[in-house]
Amino acid sequence: METVATQGAVDSRETEVLHMAFELGKKKWKLGFTTGLGQKPRQRTVAAADMAAVMMEIERARQRFGMSKAARVVSCYEAGPDGFWLHRCLLTHGVENVVVDSASIEVNRRKRRAKSDGLDLQALLTLLIRHTLGERRVWSVVRIPEPEIEDARQLHRELAALTEERTRIRNRVRGLLSVQGVSVRWWRKLREELKTMRLWNGATIGPHLRTRLERDLDRLELLEKQIRAIHETMKAELEQTAQLQSPTAMMQRLVELRSIGMQGARVMVMEMFGWRQFRNRREVGGVMGLTPTPYQSGDSCHEQGISKAGNVWVRRVAIQIAWGWVRYQPTSELSKWFMMRFAGGGRRQRRVGIVALARKLMITLWRYAQGGEPPTGAIFGTVGAYVLKAA
What is the β-pairing status of strands 292-297 and 300-306? Predict the structure, then answer.
């Protein structure tokens, strides 16, 4: 009798995968479905944000391709104005979703190429299949923060927007007075000074211009009030008793170092340290976009600068803190390294060096925020807070 070695039977439902891609618009969403490479995608259009219609189209696609209800559904869409609510909604319905960095998607490099939502869906589906099969570098997947972390980000981002708005109004007021030959001496007393200001010929400021300036000062007073309220909220947040390894505890450790204020500490923690899990220093530099981009082709070989592909909020505050670190932490090893390597060079060399220092500093602060040793030679204390500009 012939003996035949057999393997255990594999349920076909475990290998069934329905791939779905979204092309999101303000009024309509285009959906694409397929089960594998080489198959013509099934495309459907639904109203924007109509999740009931999306789930219905998923069931219809399963029936169309003859798949069971137990089959996996894997989807993707490009990161954009819709944010992460769709991702969380899909997860609650049992759909495995990934949010993709649109800048990392492969495209035809010809000067003129066909472009349509249907073609984009086909390209997304092809890349999604490759990603599902295990190809890691097919695109960059966006890391999704927890809803609590995403909500906590609003505080420092609002402060950045209010600060930029205040600067814009102040520059406009300066310009309006400058064309009349008048300058601003004290912002707090400007409203009273408008009544007594005189032009070059001794005349008073025109009534319409004075009215416009008074409206701008009303806006400035409102902005100052809102900025003070946010600062008070941040200060109260740092005074709370926090558990070890919590975001608040990380911020409390960072503000102990001189040159790091509560706003800079909050940006670093809420945007990066508080929820992202890093395995090594390269990932820390990559998430900020402070990684080199070498170019080598034939005899041509040069450096293109940093990638700037990471979190712009963290990158900006990292550069600001790096300049403050050199000034207020002269005894630290990092400051000595910068002074030895770049301080004697020109302006451009110092700017290149401060980026390198920012990357080294963020890696050291990441380890310190996680409970590690502080930077070597660092001084503890408080010296002001650094203002972050809005994107």
Answer: antiparallel
User: Per the structure block, which two tokens stand in for 287?
Assistant: 């998430």
The per-residue pLDDT for range 343-385, each reduced to its tens digit, is 888 899 999 999 999 999 999 999 999 888 889 999 997 654 4
Contact 307, 293 (CB under 8 A): yes
Q: Determine the Cα–Cα distance for residues 280 and 182; give it in Å rounded to an integer.
A: 56
Whole-prediction pTM: 0.84
CA angle 294, 297, 342 (to 5 degrees): 30
- What does residue 271 show for φ and ψ, rounded to 5 degrees? -90, -20
**Which residues are paired to 73 by β-bridges?**
18
Amino acid letter, residue 80:
G
- Report the Cα 327 to chain-centroid distance in Å: 27
Nearest to 386 by CA among 288, 253, 258, 287: 258
d(C-alpha 312, C-alpha 289), whole Å? 8
Cα separation values, 24 from 29, 32, 128, 270, Å: 5, 11, 16, 28
Handedness of CA 252, 254, 259, 265 (dihedral sign): negative
